[in-house]
Amino acid sequence: MRNKVPDKSKTVSVLLAVFLSYWSWLYTYKLDAWKFWTGLGISVITLLFFWLIFPLFFGLAVWVWVIIDVAIKDDNIYNNYQSIK
């Protein structure tokens, strides 16, 4: 018997994006896995190699990308999340 994945909420997703940046893509991981791994990779690379001012710049850019991405998604994506494969 398969467990039913509950529908997601766009409001929760936007709040997660504002407070957790790219970690909010774990909320819709089936749909946004590549975005999560890209955001994590950008963060790790900038912290390891550009440890002065660049992490702040790239971190802010990724944070804005996450908020915009989550905010412009159609509500149907969240309402029908269990049907996404």
What is the CA-CA span between the terminal residues?
A: 17 Å
Q: Which stretches of 5+ consecutive residues score pLDDT under 50?
A: none
The fraction of residues in strands falls at under 5%
* Average predicted confidence as pLDDT: 79
How many discrete domains?
1
Count every helix, treating DSSP H or I runs of 4 or more residues as helices. Answer: 4
Q: Please state the structural category.
A: mainly alpha
Q: What does the main sheet amount to?
A: none
- Estimate the global geometry from the Cα principal axes: elongated
3D architecture notes:
The protein is mostly helical and 85 residues long. It has one domain (10-74). 66% of the residues lie in helices and 0% in strands. It is built from four helices and no strands. The chain has helices spanning 10-20, 29-49, 54-72, 75-79. Helix 1 (10-20) runs antiparallel to helix 3 (54-72) and helix 2 (29-49) runs antiparallel to helix 3 (54-72). It is elongated, with a radius of gyration of 14 Å. The two termini are 17 Å apart.
Concise account of the structure shown:
Helices cover 66% and strands 0% of the residues. It has 85 residues and is mainly alpha-helical. Helix 2 runs antiparallel to helix 3 (54-72).
What is the strand and helix layout of this fold?
Blueprint: H1 10-20, H2 29-49, H3 54-72, H4 75-79
Helix pairs in contact: 1-3, 2-3
For this entry, give a set of tags.
66% helix; mainly alpha; elongated; 85 residues; 0% strand
